[in-house]
User: Which sequence fits this backbone?
């Protein structure tokens, strides 16, 4: 059962003078299989490898980001599910340093029931944001892996975020799903989070051997006003293998094309001047 959301939390407010609060990026695409979770894991790990302190929030009931960091998702006492139902504090559900520099708020299949449990809860779109505000200034980056659908968990993620990063697979229907997602981002910005902006688009599963991949990249660049990252994530067998070993790609095979691409993407994210 949920506890009352008005209940006082025994969590110290961690705001420190002079410290910039963590930049929060929601990684979202309602279309599955586009490299969303792969990007959440490997961009977070690459940012940490470059000396940044990163909190990853797994907001996807599939829990693949959790297991991708080597965490056994079905053995957890506290997850994001307990957090948003107010059954634990944020400090109780963060798993610290699952790899060097990366902490995670984990997820598992229980999260799928959250939307039903939250029916009738006041201001339910802000639950995650209110929790993350307690710890935001402890991290350089907070990365949220959104579910592959436009539901309450995705809305919570976007209400919490500063920006939305959209991984796009280099395939024919790429633009179709993107326009729907941008519409959702604009609605959240208009009604719930005026500060929300597009982080940009990153191309994934790029195959330089096919004309289609190149055409999709050019097509999206021509149609989009949003920032399109220069780094393109290649279709890479080592990237596909790494999650089954519970490792980010830079630990599993640091010399692979996938590892090098996510390191370059991390540099681009760090060096963005307009955020």
Assistant:
């Amino acid at each position: 059962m949920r506890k009352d959301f008005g209940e006082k939390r025994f969590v110290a407010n961690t705001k420190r003078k002079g410290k910039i609060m963590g930049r929060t990026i929601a990684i979202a695409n309602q279309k599955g299989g586009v490299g969303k979770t792969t990007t959440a894991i490997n961009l977070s790990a690459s940012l940490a490898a470059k000396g940044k302190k990163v909190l990853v929030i797994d907001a996807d009931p599939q829990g693949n980001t959790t297991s991708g960091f080597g965490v056994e998702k079905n053995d957890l006492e506290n997850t994001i599910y307990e957090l948003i139902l107010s059954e634990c504090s944020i400090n109780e559900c963060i798993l610290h340093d699952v790899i060097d520099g990366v902490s995670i708020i984990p997820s598992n299949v229980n999260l799928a029931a959250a939307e039903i449990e939250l029916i009738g809860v006041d201001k339910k779109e802000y639950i995650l944001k209110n929790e993350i505000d307690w710890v935001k200034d402890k991290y350089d980056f907070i990365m949220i892996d959104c579910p592959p659908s436009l539901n309450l968990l995705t809305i919570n993620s976007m209400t919490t975020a500063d920006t939305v990063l959209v991984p796009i697979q280099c395939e024919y229907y790429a633009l179709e799903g993107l326009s729907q997602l941008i519409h959702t981002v604009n609605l959240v910005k208009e009604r719930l989070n005026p500060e929300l902006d597009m982080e940009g688009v990153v191309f994934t599963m790029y195959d330089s051997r096919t004309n289609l991949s190149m055409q999709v990249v050019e097509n999206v660049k021509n149609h989009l006003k949003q920032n399109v990252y220069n780094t393109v994530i290649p279709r890479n067998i080592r990237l596909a293998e790494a999650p089954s070993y519970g490792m980010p790609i830079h630990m599993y095979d640091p010399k692979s094309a996938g590892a090098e691409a996510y390191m370059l993407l991390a540099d681009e994210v760090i060096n963005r001047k307009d955020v």
In short: The first strand starts at residue 23 and ends at 27. The first helix runs from residue 36 to 49. The two ends are 39 Å apart (CA to CA).
